[in-house]
Amino acid sequence: MTVRVAVNGYGTIGKRVADAVAKQPDMKLVGVAKTRPNFEAERAVAKGFKLYLAGSGTQEAFDQAGLPVAGRVEDLFREVDVVVDAAPDKIGRENAKLYQAAGVRAIFQGGEKSDVAQVSFSALANYSAGKGKRTIRVVSCNTTGLSRAVSVLTSRWPVEQWEATIVRRAADPAETNRGPINGIMPTFQLPSHHGHDVNTIFPDLHIATTAVVVPTTLMHVHVNHVQFTTPPGDNAELLAAFRSTPRFRVFSPWAGVDGTPQVMEFARDRGIGHQDMMENVLWENGLRVDGKSAYFFQAIHQESIVVPETIDAIRAMFDLAPDAAHSIAITDRTLGIPPP
Ligand code: NAP
């Protein structure tokens, strides 16, 4: 079966998901939708993707920009099995009414509240929960990063309490309308919403998160403190668990990767996706087992981490693979993410 896919919203996440869908052997990208012409719309046309008008978009505006349009989103929805919604936060909930009216399945992103879909999804954690669903929400970048790590640890060692402080990037690189450009802004929601969101995937996990926003655009960094009832034996055992799991990259000290600037330089050199880092990034010397506790840092590339998860969500929805491992293997091979 080849699943026909539309991407509604062609910005940071949508353009990456569209490229990823186009690489899958069991999916076909039918078209992408935007409200207005810009450089991203021009790139979509250059790649041969059919462009459709979303929201308040007008044919006239695209005509003036010289960009061909194949129709409105309603026309697109008639030609597909599923829509990946990658519109800005909260617009997905509005768009949900359109998907329902068109009788088409939908994958939402983490900017929407969890009740927008039948299930919240993270491939390593709950792939099978997505099977056969009509609506799935791929959790946010931070929740995806945390959920992957929770999957690794809780499947091996019982966790008593997980605490994480999320050092959040202020904006994506192209977002010149967000800040701060100088300052560290505490998130005055204690605990922050991220832990609650992890509970949409792991309802029984005791997790509490806090967050600060810092002036960087590259990545988020999570500072994790995990208390176990039965802990890993030592650092090496914990490291081996991460290293043997897909979508984790652990840098050794010799690599000279001291922080997020070098991680993203590595990603630019490697050149997969849009020079992306779709794995959770850990450091060998940024991890320590201490009695019943473990501490570790992980960096999350907000622009791309949810892309492979979105592909797996489509595969789960249409039961295209027997389990998470098979889907992850296809997704990662086609996207160029190295196996463990
Ligand atoms: P974005 O860069 O602002 O892109 C949004 C896209 O949606 C733009 O192409 C925009 O087109 C289009 N759009 C606007 N109104 C629309 C409508 N009514 N119908 C369809 N498309 C519409 O946003 P993003 O960062 O990709 O975020 C998309 C979703 O992914 C959000 O739920 C967000 O929370 C989530 N997410 C984002 C990140 C991240 O770090 N960026 C990480 C994980 C998850 P126009 O330019 O024409 O307005």
Task: Describe this protein's structure.
It is a single chain. The protein has 340 residues and is an alpha/beta fold. The chain is 33% helix and 26% strand. The chain contains 12 helices and 15 strands. The strands form 2 sheets. Strands 4-3-2-1-5-6-8-7 form an 8-stranded parallel beta sheet, with helices on both faces. β5, α5 and β6 form a beta-alpha-beta unit. α1 crosses α11 and α11 crosses α12. The protein is globular and about 65 Å long. The chain starts with a strand and ends in a 5-residue tail after the last helix. The model has no long low-confidence stretch (mean pLDDT 98). The protein binds NADP nicotinamide-adenine-dinucleotide phosphate (NAP). NADP nicotinamide-adenine-dinucleotide phosphate (NAP) binds next to α1, β2 and α5.
How do the strands line up in the largest sheet?
4-3-2-1-5-6-8-7
Order of helices and strands: EHEHEHEHEHEEHEHEEHEEHEHEEHH
Small molecules bound: NADP nicotinamide-adenine-dinucleotide phosphate
On the 0-100 scale, what is the average pLDDT?
98
Low-confidence stretches: none
Radius of gyration: 20 Å
Protein structure class: alpha/beta
- Helicity range of the residues? 25-40%
- Spatial shape: globular
Largest sheet: 8 strands, parallel
Distance between the termini: 28 Å
Helical run tally = 12
| Binned strand content | 25-35%
The strand count comes to 15
